[in-house]
C-alpha cells in the first residue's frame, strides 16, 4: 500500500510539472481507459467475438504455434 502512495505522489508531481500538451495527452489517455469499450462496440462485432470464443472453447481453431507452422509451410 505504501508503494501505491509513493507512486501517487510521483504522478502528482509529474502532473504539476507537465506542460499543456502533456496534460492533454494524459487526460485523453485516462478518458479512453475509463470508457467501457465493450459497451461501445457494435452488436455485430460483439456477436462475432462471442462466437469465436465458443469455437475456441470447443476446440475449433488453431493454436498460435499451429498457425505459425501452417503459414511457414505455405511459403
Major β-sheet annotation: none
Instruction: State the total count of DSSP E strands.
Output: 0
Mean pLDDT: 88
- Estimate what percentage of residues fall within beta strands: under 5%
The computed structural class is mainly alpha
Number of domain units: 1
Radius of gyration: 21 Å
Question: How many DSSP H or I helices?
Answer: 5
Q: List segments where confidence is low: pLDDT < 50 over at least 5 consecutive residues.
A: none
Q: Tell me the series of helices and strands, N- to C-terminal.
A: HHHHH
Helix content: over 70%
The geometry reads as elongated
N-to-C span? 52 Å
3D structure, described in words:
By secondary structure, the chain is an all-alpha fold. The protein has one domain. It contains 5 helices and no strands. The chain has helices at residues 2-17, 20-34, 37-40, 43-57, 64-74. The termini are far apart. The relative contact order is 0.05. The model has no long low-confidence stretch (mean pLDDT 88).
SSE blueprint:
Blueprint: H1 2-17, H2 20-34, H3 37-40, H4 43-57, H5 64-74
How would you briefly describe this protein structure?
With 75 residues, the protein is an all-alpha fold. The chain contains 5 helices and no strands. The protein has helices at 2-17, 20-34, 37-40, 43-57, 64-74.
From the structure above, extract its key features.
single chain; 75 residues; mainly alpha; 81% helix; elongated
Amino acid at each position: 500500500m505504501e508503494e501505491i502512495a509513493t507512486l501517487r505522489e510521483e504522478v502528482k508531481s509529474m502532473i504539476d510539472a507537465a506542460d499543456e500538451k502533456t496534460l492533454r495527452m494524459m487526460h485523453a489517455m485516462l478518458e479512453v481507459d475509463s470508457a467501457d469499450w465493450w459497451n461501445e462496440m457494435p452488436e455485430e462485432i460483439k456477436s462475432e467475438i462471442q462466437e469465436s470464443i465458443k469455437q475456441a472453447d470447443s476446440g475449433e481453431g488453431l493454436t498460435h504455434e499451429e498457425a505459425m507452422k501452417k503459414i511457414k509451410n505455405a511459403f
